[in-house]
Amino acid sequence: MKFVFGSLFSAAKKTAKTRSAKKLIRAVAPFTAMIVVAGLAQAAPTIDMSGVTSVMQTVQTACLLIGAIIILISLVFSVFSFAGGNIMRGVTGVAGVLFGALIIGLGPTWIASLTGQAVG
Which residue has the higher pLDDT, 3 or 48? Predict the structure, then answer.
């Protein structure tokens, strides 16, 4: 009887050891993977942003031109609407002028937020 109980207890101890080893591996594996990936990410080369900056300067110039065209067209139509007596259409034209000014004012900020660097 002593031999039978001894082998049962030793089998239970082995099973408990394998369970704790599996739990340890499950707990350590994510940290190990994170360290490996972080090491690879640190070894990445730097990215040359000169091409992106020139493209974003072109987009910024386009924003300024589009805003200026919107302001000009809206201003002309709002003046004609006010002169013709249509006050609501004139107010709508003034809103277009303000929208164009918003594009001109915020264009460089939008471009800087896209690239992460000041353009201009």
Answer: 48
Task: Kindly list the distances between the CA atom of residue 17 and the CA atoms of 23, 25, 81, in Å, as whole numbers in the listed order.
Answer: 10, 12, 87
Nearest by Cα to 68 from 108, 97, 29, 33: 97
DSSP 85: T
Q: Where are the domains positioned within the chain?
A: 1-44, 50-115
Per-residue exposure over 47-79, b if at least 16 CB sit within 10 Å of its own CB, e if not: eeeeeeeeebeebbeebbeebeebbeebeebbe
Q: How far apart are CA 95 and CA 81, in angstroms?
A: 13
Helices (H), the chain: 2-42, 50-84, 87-115
- pLDDT at position 20 over 70: yes
Which residues, including other chains, have CB under 8 Å from residue 79's CB and lie 6 or more apart?
90, 93
Minimal CA–CA distance to 63: which of 15, 31, 7, 101? 101
Measured distance CA(116)–CA(112) in Å, rounded: 5
Higher pLDDT, 85 or 10: 85
